[in-house]
Design a protein that fits this description.
The protein has about 250 residues and is an alpha/beta fold. It has helices at about 10-35, 35-40, 45-50, 55-95, 125-145, 180-185, 190-195, 195-230, 235-245, and strands spanning about 95, 105-110, 110-120, 155-160, 175, 230, 235. A hairpin with a 7-residue loop joins strand 1 (about 95) and strand 2. It starts with 11 loop residues before the first helix and ends in a 9-residue tail after the last helix.
């Protein structure tokens, strides 16, 4: 049996703790500065909320708040996984964050100079974005070969999760999920092993955020009841007027 080397990764908990601390701190600051009417103005489709028939105001507020926070959370976790991959590769293969346009990571493995564009999942871009990535790969290959014509350069699109069973794309290789994490670490099980430190550090930093999150839901629920409810029922016409009406919203209209 071929036993894959499992590298020691000192500092991974500290690395994640710093980033979760920054993330949850920023989320709490966003909650502190948020006002109910900002949240209501940002509703993309108030009619969809009505179709979903949200009858509990607290559930309605939670739904809107989650939509408001979701893009920031998605961006954070994409950046977190990318940063974690670079961190691990640095520890194992001496990899480094690349300064080249569109390239996130460079490292040498088995005498191959790997240039990696890291994405979250396999379905990350449209055709124009793929063309741009391939163009970036060509530029970096040309620059590297200017100083060393014999260098073996391999362009890689690494995806932190998912799968793509056709790795060879002609101009580059695409490694997803387990294949990607094994490539940058030499450990075929790393893609599951990182779950534990990710979960541990998220729990450590999540408690303060949950308190702030619950506080804002309770506050906004009360404010919404006073402004947009009649006898405990949501006044949907008033809510839609506030979100989409051409005239300035008037209180108690």
């Amino acid at each position: 049996m071929n036993k894959t080397r499992k590298p020691k990764l000192p500092g991974i908990y500290s690395f994640l703790d710093k980033r979760f601390s920054i993330f949850y701190g920023s989320q709490i600051e966003i909650l502190k500065k948020l006002h109910l009417k900002i949240l209501l103005k940002d509703i993309e489709n108030p009619y969809l909320l009505r179709v979903k028939n949200e009858v509990f105001v607290s559930d309605l507020i939670r739904s809107m708040l989650d939509v408001h926070l979701s893009p920031l959370q998605d961006d954070f976790f994409d950046d977190l996984l990318k940063g974690l991959a670079i961190f691990i590769c640095e520890k194992v293969y001496g990899g480094k964050k690349s300064s080249a346009e569109g390239i996130d990571l460079e490292f040498v493995k088995d005498n191959i100079h790997c240039i990696v564009a890291i994405k979250s999942g396999p379905n990350w871009g449209n055709s124009q974005q793929i063309i741009k990535m391939k163009d970036n790969f060509r530029k970096v290959k040309r620059i590297l070969r200017t100083s060393n014509s014999k260098i073996n350069v391999q362009a890689i699109n690494g995806c932190c999760y998912g799968r793509d069973n056709k790795s060879d794309k002609g101009d580059y290789f695409k490694y997803c999920g387990q294949r990607f994490w094994e490539l940058i670490s030499g450990n075929e099980n790393l893609y599951t092993e990182i779950i534990e430190p990710l979960g541990h550090n998220a729990r450590e930093r999540n408690e303060e955020f949950v308190i702030a999150y619950a506080q804002i839901i309770n506050k906004f629920t009360l404010d919404f009841m006073n402004e947009f409810c009649i006898d405990g029922k949501v006044n949907w016409k008033k809510l839609v007027r506030f979100n989409s009406g051409k005239e300035k919203f008037e209180r108690n209209k």
